[in-house]
Amino acid sequence: MITTIQEVKRKFDVEDVRKDFPILTRLVNGKSLVYLDNAATSQKPQTVIDALTQYYTFDNANIHRGLYFLSELATEQYESARLKVKEFINAMSVSEIVFVRGATEAINLVASSLCRAKHFKDGDEVIISHMEHHANIVPWQLLGDRKNINLKVIPINDAGELDMDAFEKLFCEKTKLVSVVHISNALGTINPVKKIIEIAHAKKIPVLIDGAQAIPHHKVDVQELDADFYVFSGHKVFGPTGIGVLYGKTEFLEMMPPYQGGGDMIRTVTFEKTTFDDIPRKFEAGTPNIAGGIALGAAIDYVMQFDRPELAEYENELLVYGTEKLSQIEGLRIIGTAKEKASVISFVIDGIHPYDIGTIIDTDGIAIRTGHHCTQPIMQRFNLPATARASFAFYNTKEEIDNLVLGIHKVKKMFA
Ligand code: PMP
The domain containing residue 360 runs over which residues? Predict the structure, then answer.
């Protein structure tokens, strides 16, 4: 039987929720873990861990091909997870949900397959933004092997917001796709993607949205957005690594050729010619991450038990609190001060390298990210080699932010 997303909402209580995430009880360097690197990957609730264990312990079999009980069970669970994803992002059809390894593979798939579909000619242009993750820059450059694609970049202001006037001016007859990030992992900026899609569609240009950072924080409705492609990774939305989603409108997925060839994506094969399966299967060559897909379904169930705006409101409280506390630290500068922001705070401190900040506070069990966050162009834009970044999920607390602040004061004392 295919299960659907639960309707009765669980009241959000942070202390109660923290009990669902076993890792949050562990010690690091003798101190309680303070995990503030959720933009890199989020922690997993017990239900997701249980889904993985259940599959490998009792239900393991390959999918789609076996006519025996376990294979049918595994297939049913995997396909039920696809249905959960479809409902989670409100896709029109379950066949618009392609399981991939993550956001990175999804963008590579679209780039490669659109290129093979002859969507691009030499000299055509893809519009991206200055705040893209490398996953939405490099795949387009790699097409250079086959087609010479030029990237046109939407500039940003000092707060880290897109210059929408400049965006409109980037379009020309060579523009073939807009591919932009929904929420920046480096700055936390929430981009006006609905507006971006409207503008591009008025010029008949399709749009891919990199939703890797948006999906964990906000309800995303791909039909309401009218996105042509929307991609995300399971591991940032409390699911396992190695599984992610490419949503594509049927009209695009139907016209795009397969990305990889192999088993499970074909209808017939002879040495002369192969015919391909329907969407989404024609994009899913080989044995997939079955356990990952099933556990992503469990992660979606986990998130969907809550009222999502309630979670987003709590995360925003953390953002406001963290911004206020960090801003009070002398010499600390927040990078990314957009009006519309998700719970990500990137910062630098005069005279102290971000790596030193990260390494020293780690001795107190506090995990933040330091570096260029796979967004080197945005670091160049702010003339920085790196930032320190604290990113919050709904299981974080104000006390954890207080610990971060104490840790930063300790770092400053050491460098004084
Ligand atoms: N886009 C954004 C905005 C991201 O933050 C990330 C991961 N940091 C990615 C794409 C790539 O995700 P993954 O590594 O899971 O494929």
Answer: 14-39+307-415
Q: Is the CB of 135 under 6 A from ligand 1?
A: yes
Atom 4 of ligand 1 has which residue's CA nearest to it? Answer: 212
Pocket of ligand 1 contains residue 108 by CB under 6 Å: no
* Domain closes at, from 270, 303, 336: 303
Kind plus residue range of the DSSP H or E element containing 211? none
| Distance, CA of 168 to CA of 244 (rounded, Å) | 31
Cα–Cα distance, 259 to 269 (Å, whole number): 17
Q: Edge-to-edge strand order for the sheet containing 387-391?
A: 332-335, 344-349, 387-391, 369-371
pLDDT band with cut points at 50, 70 and 90 for residue 387: very high
Asked whether 210 lines ligand 1 (CB < 6 A), one says yes
- CA dist., res. 196 & res. 164, Å (int): 8
C-alpha of residue 269 to centroid of ligand 1, in Å: 35
Answer yes or no: is the C-beta of 214 below 6 A from any ligand 1 atom. no
Which of residues 303, 326, 352 is at a domain's end? 303
For residue 237, how far is its CA from the centre of ligand 1 (angstroms)?
12
CA of 238 to the centre of ligand 1 (A): 14
pLDDT band at residue 366 using 50, 70 and 90 as cut-offs: very high
**46 within some domain:** no
Other beta carbons within 10 Å of 308: 16
CATH number at residue 324: 3.90.1150.10
pLDDT in tens, 178-217: 999 999 999 999 999 999 999 999 999 999 999 999 999 9
Which letter does DSSP use for residue 56 in this model? Answer: I
Residue 215 · residue 85 · CB < 8 Å:
no
Catalytic positions, written as ranges:
374
Structural domains counted in the chain? 2
Q: Report residue 36 as tokens.
A: 């503030």
**CA distance to 43, 49, 50, 83, 105, per residue, from 297 (Å):** 15, 12, 12, 9, 19
pTM over 0.90: yes
Per-residue pLDDT band for 364 (boundaries 50, 70, 90) equals very high
